[in-house]
Records
---
Amino acid sequence: MYSQGLIGADGSTDESQDFLDRFQARIDAEEKIEPTDAMPEGYRRTLVRQIGQHAHSEIVGMLPEGNWITRAPTLRRKAALLAKVQDEGGHGLYLYSAAETLGVSREEMTEELHSGKAKYSSIFNYPTLSWADIGTIGWLVDGAAIMNQIPLCRCSFGPYARAMIRVCKEESFHQRQGYEIVMTLARGTPEQKAMAQDSLNRWWWPALMMFGPHDADSEHSDQSMKWKIKRFSNDELRQKFIDATVPQAEFLGLTVPDADCKWNEEKGGYDHGPIDWSEFWRVVKGGGVMNRDRIRDRKAAWEKGEWVRDAALAHAEKRRARKMAAE
Ligand code: FAQ
């Protein structure tokens, strides 16, 4: 499927089977691949695609929660939400930097996001209708993100794996603050509990979709697992998430909106009902409720930030010129 051109740090290429075998042997020996190492072009392209999509998800993911900063119910909640949204922005920046080490520029990635060419996680195309959604995003969306990202800390590509270590620590905090918001509502008035249940009803299935299509329909999984970019398949991670989350919902006195969700003693995990993949693909292809608004808002933020980028660049140029004059 991929062109197997190889580009070394010195720009040399090697397309031999011998090189591919030696590269795979490094992966199998759990060696980390660094940006200056020669690598198959397919490996590089897969990482640029995945890390780029991941970075875009973090940045677009700031929008649904950002929507509630001015309406947080208390000062403490507002401070925590502000910090969380800023954390997500930071995650996007580490990830863009990790992708840049593979020879793609921030501008190219941004352009791909704005033009609709690059994907970002389907989950961020759903609206945040109530304060409970802010709790549910932390609980379910950060919870799903952690389940997916903990194995990425062992990804074969060094900069991605290292970025994930800090990201996972921060996401764990986000997950706990979200769960605590939902717990407060679930133990509150009947109206607050109903708000928490309504939020779980709306976010449960989209959260399961975050893990991507079933393994049989996952185009990239086999190769990504061979290269140890992914350590678990989409279905394996989805199952781990369900098994961890259903007891959390039970503890809160809430019910996941799936009549087929039952403990299966034999497999040692929960069964679940069918996922609506037609909805998933509709949202991924731009047909979700919020797709258009998300891209519009990202473009506006990028345009409004132009003077900041220009000023930072001018400052850096000035410092460089001063330093050169002094030498
Ligand atoms: N949404 O062959 P596969 C977060 C695409 S971070 C949209 O299975 P792969 C933090 C996929 O790209 C959330 N598209 O693909 C936060 C591919 O399309 P392509 C993001 C999806 O790469 C929390 C096609 O379908 N996390 O939430 C989705 O092997 C709270 C075929 O799929 C990451 O990005 C989807 N859900 O596996 C922020 C983690 N699923 O490229 C703010 C890193 C699949 O051929 C608030 N990424 N697609 O055009 C991964 O682990 C993988 O890329 C998967 C997909 C598992 C997402």
---
Amino acid sequence: MSDKTSIVSLICAAGVGSRMKLDRPKQYMKLGADPMLLHTIRAMKDVERLDDIVVVVSPTDPYIDEIADRFPEGVRLLRCGGKERAESVVNGLIAANFPRDAWVLVHDAARPCVRPAEVGKLIDAVLSDETVAGGILAAPVADTIKRVDANRRILETVPRGDLWRAATPQMFRVHELIEALSGNLTGVTDEASAMERLGKSVKIVQGRTTNIKVTEPADAVLASLLLGDTAVVPFRVGQGYDSHRLVEGRPLILGGVHIPFELGLDGHSDADVLLHAITDAVLGAAGLGDIGRHFPPTDMKWKGADSGKLLAEIVRLAREKGWQVVNCDATIITERPKIGPHVPAMEASVAKLLGVDEELVNLKAKTNEKMDAVGRLEGMMAHAVVLMTRVER
Ligand code: MG
């Protein structure tokens, strides 16, 4: 194989993606900050050995102009897509004016998560095997496969040992692919199937299962995650802090548990310093501001309020916004009383308010080593962190 044979790529972006129910074709759907098509182009641009990349869109595509000026340098845009994928590929191969004997990697715009390394592996595998007309990235079928009848009753379990899921890129000689895609295309669903029907030998090269085709809305979430879009990371962390004075004549309530002591915490509500810190942590994780915004101390409605009810309300609000508590870790800082014996009851109480298992609440107590106001028993402090996860609404 000559080193001088050029290797080019054609990215097919002429589809309409009706399954996504979007107002525009799916290749323009945003994954993180950028539309899918830009991610796909950048991934192919990162493949070192490509001499040329063209993107084929429909001649009537009104959206391409919004992003065409953001194409990486050297990537060419061809407005010659057809009704069917095969037509778009043939039109593109001809319009691109690629060398006839060049190798072309046809790639699907809806596979933005392809990695340059797996494309390199495909190129190596095809160039090093003179017995094949080309090759494709594919992944072994992991699921058990059933063949069914018209009523969706299982007819048989299909042995899957020799079954693979075809992906893209698919790599062939330009002139051979044009010829293959110019014949009868009944039953042809990818470039390889057109080559197969001409009796050509096509090699399977194992790619990564992360090279997904974005077809359904859930695929877009997965693709965004794979592309490192932090906005779709399904976790949020929140931090909370609170302090209250210790005074005579008030009950001491911590984590919703009444603790016998000669002093109690002073405040507008029941002054449960631990629950206030945890409430702020939940608010922080859910991006809902702080406790004062939801329960202003100037509002008489909250005078003497049970802080457990306030926390439960905030947990409900966070859930409404799509966030659920995973776990909570908190620290109470006080000289006295001894908090340790009350920790199990407090953990159970907090877990119930947060709607999680007791295992997922961890409370700690420290003294302030007699330093400062807390050390002089003038007040108590609490710190909390809460992790939340996205839930389906
Ligand atoms: Mg407070």
